[in-house]
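Whether sequence alone determines local backbone shape is best considered at the level of individual chains. For completeness, the protein is quoted in full, as a sequence line and a line of structure tokens:
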Amino acid sequence: MKRYYLPEIEVFRRYEHRVCNRLISGYHRKLASKHRYFVRHQLLKERPFYTDANLSEIISVLDNIEIINCRWNSKEWNVTPWNYFVTSGKVYEGYKDMNAIPFTQGYNGDDIGKRADDGFYFKSFKGNNCTYWRDRNSETPTWHLRYGNQYVNLRNNTFYVGIFGSTKATQSAPSDLVLPLLKQMNAKKWRGFYDDEIDFILEQTGIERRLL
């Protein structure tokens, strides 16, 4: 596997901070535009590198790494991982939405979806005045929703509703808080990415699909 590196940090330290950052960004854009993946170690202090090796080859050689797809583009955001994590030989995919930027322009924020061999195990949503996330690794149905300053959480088959830091248990989730989020998640621009979450929320809340 051929590896391509940025110049050693000592090369940049001779310049003042602002110039140094511009030079590093320039080198990064050039290498990320030319090569397929960027690889950095999670536990070791070895230098990160760019490579054109196949994903399978990288995974077979290295462990406990992050692999960033330098060729990711927003047109296929819902089917193409932005990055991969390899931990103890297992591969985890990270997905970002259509507003994410290619790696040539820098690093992005949080993933909207995380996937392993057996499917997605985490999804999050940020809409107009609302957010939602669920970690499917939880042994019991658990999800978190915010609409405005109101929160709806499901933990251990009990709904909790209220403002941050002050929620009370209730028998059901209020539809006036849940429906606005579901309608945004159901928008065409999301290409069905959240359909499984919508199904899950409808099942847990008893809200009828026709109301979407």
User: Anything to note?
Assistant: The chain has a mean pLDDT of 92. Residues 119-212 form one domain. The CA atoms of residues 160 and 168 lie 5 Å apart. Helices lie at 9-13, 17-34, 55-61, 175-185, 195-205.
